[in-house]
Amino acid sequence: MDEHDVRDAVRRKYGEIAVSAGRESCCGPSNCCDPVTARLYSEAETRGLPREAVAASLGCGNPTALLALEPGQTVLDLGSGGGIDVLLTAARVGPTGKVYGLDMTDEMLALAEENRRKAGAANVEFLKGAIEAIPLPDRSIDVIISNCVINLSPDKDAVLREAFRVLRPGGRFAVSDVVVRGDVPPDVRRSMELWVGCIAGAMGESEYVSKLRDAGFVDVQVEPWRVYSVEDARAFLTESGLDVDRLAPQVDGRFASALIRARKPVPADGSGDQTGPCR
Ligand SMILES: C[S@@+](CC[C@H](N)C(=O)[O-])C[C@H]1O[C@@H](n2cnc3c(N)ncnc32)[C@H](O)[C@@H]1O
Q1: Which of these, 157, 199, 150, lies nearest to 174 by C-alpha position?
Q2: Does residue 34 have a pLDDT over 80?
Q3: φ and ψ at residue 103, rounded to 5 degrees
């Protein structure tokens, strides 16, 4: 698939979702029935957030749940959507910290800014741009997070190179993403509908590890935590126009949500701007 076509399709789809965010579906918030986006955050975590930020959650994990964050740190969320992870992180790094949310879709940025205003988060800034060309200086970020976005990129090497560039030495990468386990039927791989739904563009576990290492990261870990069953696969395929009965058994157990962690090494001579307690 052509890179421009993928980006345009992704932007269009998430623009439409942003505009409809917060509408109630048959069973409550719009994301409650989706096997990928449902049940990611505890009620205690989301209690203080604007309802629209929670309803617009489109991730496939909770990248900051197990992450040690310190007051004063600078965090970047790649593909911040309606801003749920940005707002959760902002509360943890406090007024001396800063959280950037980067997104390419105008409608998502508008929704996120509205959610930031409702939450009263003064230490948050949303930036317009592509995750393949991050509009921030080298070594300016302590922690990079992201939630179900890197699989959408048609140029994952560029995303990981850029993530490495903007992290400080010792900085951490903690991302939730969909990964593939084993072979996937070619018609699933070719489906634009499944690409924009975070499925067709997903990398294999070992591919993720080697791309992160190629970008310069160390201590790379990919930990799948929710493996999608044949019934979940039916839900993915329903909208795609593919032959659901034929394909669902072939993708049973092949996709999973994973937590991906890595670290930018500190140069052996100890040089590098080590601000903040990175580990
Ligand atoms: C699946 S949603 C996830 C949103 C958010 N992380 C969450 O958990 O709710 C993907 C988001 O990434 C953005 N996005 C996708 N590809 C992007 C790219 N190449 N550069 C910047 N933003 C991108 C989309 O506009 C959308 O807001």
Answers
A1: 150
A2: no
A3: -150, 150
Query: Would the CB of 180 count as within 6 Å of ligand 1?
Result: no
CA of 156 to the centre of ligand 1 (A): 14
CA of 80 to the centre of ligand 1 (A): 6
Is the confidence at residue 24, as pLDDT, over 50?
Answer: no
**Is the pLDDT reported for residue 30 higher than 50?**
no
Q: Can you tell me the distance from the alpha carbon of 196 to that of 46, in angstroms, rounded to the nearest whole number?
A: 26
Q: Is the CB of 18 under 6 A from ligand 1?
A: no
pTM: 0.92
pLDDT for 33 equals 59
- CA of residue 121 relative to chain centroid, distance: 21
Closest ligand 1 atom to 18 CA? 27
For ligand 1, the distance from its centroid to the CA atom of residue 57, given in whole angstroms, is 11
The phi and psi torsions of 147 (rounded to 5 degrees) equal -140, 95
Question: Between the CA atoms of 40, 44, 48 and 53, what dihedral angle is there, to the nearest 10 degrees?
Answer: 10
pLDDT digits 0-9 by tens, 2-16: 889 999 999 999 999
Take residue 82 and report the two structure tokens written for it: 């309606």
Which tens digit of pLDDT belongs to each residue from 80-133? 999 999 999 999 999 999 999 999 999 999 999 999 999 999 999 999 999 999
From residue 179, how far is each of 6, 12, 85, 207, 253 by CA, in Å?
18, 23, 20, 9, 11
The residue behind tokens 């034929």 is: 246
CB of 79 shorter than 6 A to ligand 1: yes
With a cut of 80, say whether residue 279 has pLDDT above it. no
At residue 38, φ and ψ (nearest 5 deg) are -75, 150
CB atoms within 10 A of CB 136: 16
Q: Is 53 in the pocket of ligand 1 (CB under 6 A)?
A: no
**One-letter amino acid of 34:** D
